Amino acid sequence: MARWEPGARERLVIAAVDLFTEQGYDATKVAEIAERAGVTRSTFFRHFADKREVLVAGQEALSGLLAEGIAAAPDGASPVEAVSAGLERASNAMGPVNRELAPRIQAAVAASAELQERDALKSVGLAAAMTTALLDRGVPDPAAHLAAELGLLAFKSGFARWSAANRDDPTELAQHAQVALEELRAAAAALG
Amino acid sequence: MARWEPGARERLVIAAVDLFTEQGYDATKVAEIAERAGVTRSTFFRHFADKREVLVAGQEALSGLLAEGIAAAPDGASPVEAVSAGLERASNAMGPVNRELAPRIQAAVAASAELQERDALKSVGLAAAMTTALLDRGVPDPAAHLAAELGLLAFKSGFARWSAANRDDPTELAQHAQVALEELRAAAAALG
């Protein structure tokens, strides 16, 4: 009996990342991903528009969590404190599967120009979601854009540290992201 | 006699932007772009891999100018001062054609998911070029990443103001970019 039984969507992501790792992104067909995940092709297409979208699965959910956390920050919070609240909320939604898959997803993206484009658009989308949430709080531009970029860099950097850390290191993603954000905040104040 | 006779590459960019504006990006074929520009299809393909690349023409040149300007900044320059030197060098390479085409390129990008991805990758590439140039100067991370993002935001914002300004406004792109950079620097220092 499997230790855990992820839903079809998660199984599709895992199957896709496994296949991209084994045989490359270009050589992998949707039908193979579906077969490996034990679902039909039409189930695949209920979850993803194409194989590329599998690797940015969760972008909308992630954008939503970042924005919600920013919106829910206390009234007097500075832009960076609001971003911190967004990172906290988004980080808490990431689990062991995200952590395990991250290095292989990164390798697949690094090996494919097509995936790099999609990944770049994902970054732009996350930053835009945070920018909008900050503007909605009354943070003026360009502080809103800038704080959102800080948040994006902190999330990426925190995620990279989290997925690279030993599995017996109990530091959670949220902590890694906060440390990265604090480093960025200090760097921002010292840019000259 | 034409007032100026741009080379094939520039004619292809202008023809492509005209056609994308008139009939949309998806409906435009490479053969039409070549015909409008008065060149053969094979000349098109000597300059661009596909029609999408036309709209990010100059990305490599731009990355190179930003990096060169950063590298050539005086020894004691702060990260933001180095970025400022990069923006100065890149801005001075932009001319009236860039300014005229900008709003239509922006409209074409806004109307096409495919172009948005390519445009996002262009932004990532420009930031990466500046980050590398700053690291090469000995700027530590995350200050290097952050200063590069400031530079990217300043260049985009300066470019948008420049192309939106009245044509009798003598403010040059370099000035718009410096003003935007100064706003971002002040915002960075006040992020909280």
Which key phrases capture this entry?
0% strand; mainly alpha; Tetracycline Repressor, domain 2; homodimer; 10 helices; Arc Repressor Mutant, subunit A
Q: Which fold name fills CATH's third level, the topology of the largest domain in chain A?
A: Tetracycline Repressor, domain 2
Highest CATH level, the class of the largest domain in chain A = Mainly Alpha
Find the count of extended strands of chain A (DSSP E, 2+ residues): 0
Structural class of chain A: mainly alpha
Gyration radius of chain A, in Å: 18 Å
Oligomeric state of shown chains: homodimer
Roughly how many Å apart are the termini of chain A? 59 Å
Mean pLDDT of chain A: 91
What is the largest interface, and how many residues per chain?
A: A-B, 30 and 30 residues
Structure characterization notes:
The structure is a homodimer of 192-residue chains. Chain A folds into 2 domains: 8-54, Homeodomain-like (Arc Repressor Mutant, subunit A), CATH 1.10.10; 58-190, Tetracycline Repressor, domain 2 (Orthogonal Bundle), CATH 1.10.357. Chain A has 10 helices and no strands. Chain A has helices spanning 8-23, 30-37, 41-47, 51-54, 59-71, 79-92, 96-110, 113-136, 143-164, 173-189. The N and C termini of chain A lie far apart (59 Å). The model of chain A is unreliable at 1-5 (pLDDT under 50). The interface between A and B is medium-sized, with 30 and 30 residues.
